[in-house]
Amino acid sequence: MACRSGCCCGYGPINEDNARFLLLALFIIIYLFCGAAVFSALEQPKEREAKERWAQRFEHFSQKYNLSKKDLNNFLRNYEEANVAGIRVDTIRPRWDFTGAFYFVGTVVSTIGFGMTTPATIGGKVFLMFYGLLGCAATILFFNLFLERVITVIAVVLKSCHERRHNKAVLPQNGRQVSEGNREGGAAGGGGGKGEDLAGWKPSVYCVMLILGAAAILVSCCASFMYSAAEGWGYLDSLYFCFVAFSTIGFGDMVSSQRVVYEGHATAAYRLGNFFFILTGVCCIYSLFNVISIVIKQVLNWLLRRLEAPCRCCFPRRGHHPHRHPRQNVVAPGHLRTRRDPSIETDAINESETDTGRRMSGEMISMRDFLAANKVNLAIMQKQLSEMAIGHPRQCSSSSRQNGFSGGVGALGIMNNRLAETSVDR
């Protein structure tokens, strides 16, 4: 009892997944507070200045044309309603012809949602709910498949470069390069370990992050040149638009390809280039975000390992508490964590096997047996769904959870065991 009351945990071992989730939630909350403080310090003076300037212009306009403030406010409200419907002072392309509607559905399924075009009818709003449900799901699947192929291509290229460096580094004692026959004989005799290392080599997440970051910067810089020339924006504003659009934030303060005709530029070619850059940029930024999430998860795992030291009093080194059942995925030292590899399938089967004879004899099944059987069925269904999603059965390993990257859903599941930092055999 003294250990429990003096422990920082207070309630015994913490589930590792829950601990990682809580750490990430805490990090996001702190990140939000820091971001709010920075943006408030940067943008609030500009907002106050704009409000003062607008109040002066409003007062001057009402006095110059002898208009009451009430009538002027009503007129401005009418303009705001027209603005929502797509009416602007400057001439812009129609919002709901086929090309305008195609641009709109593109922002919907890509989850960019600029907001400059929104359905105004009840039928349009209802249709959007069902259309976006299927479209966004299909687009996210497309992004995941794109990420899978990008990771595969990068891994093949990096592995080829690694093999070339490894072959050049294999030198005899006299400093000359070994011939192919001697190299194969050496590998068969005693160098099999290096061959196995090459066979199981995986690229580092940091190399993949660097390559994807360079690709995203290259696409953004090229797109910014196009937007600066066609839209008349400053280059920094064009970079800002690229990040907002490619990351699917989509504020809507700056929107590309909204004029009817672009003088001095081929309008069709510009709109085709706009579509290409947005599609490519979204795919690159999506892939980069998911690789960065792997790095964030590495940091969380490092923090969990650091937090194990002051909490070791919760984990007795020898024996177990007589009234405490072993828990799954606890933040425990490595030699305790690797002794047992529990899973929902094996736990449920073991719990239900003890009373199998009684159930076969025709007695009424107990609630405990009923719940255990449901756990087995749920585990089998989850395994089948997972195998169907990734296209092949998942290989289980006794060390599958030691690095905290096993399993995963969506992009994390795709990158699992494809990078060196997510590999179970590290």
UniProtKB/TrEMBL annotation:
Cellular localisation: Cell membrane
The Potassium channel domain, residue ranges: 93-150, 216-297
Membrane topology: Multi-pass membrane protein
GO biological process: stabilization of membrane potential
InterPro entries linked to this entry: 2pore_dom_K_chnl, 2pore_dom_K_chnl_THIK, K_chnl_dom
Taxonomy, superkingdom: Eukaryota
Name of the protein this chain belongs to: Potassium channel, subfamily K, member 13b
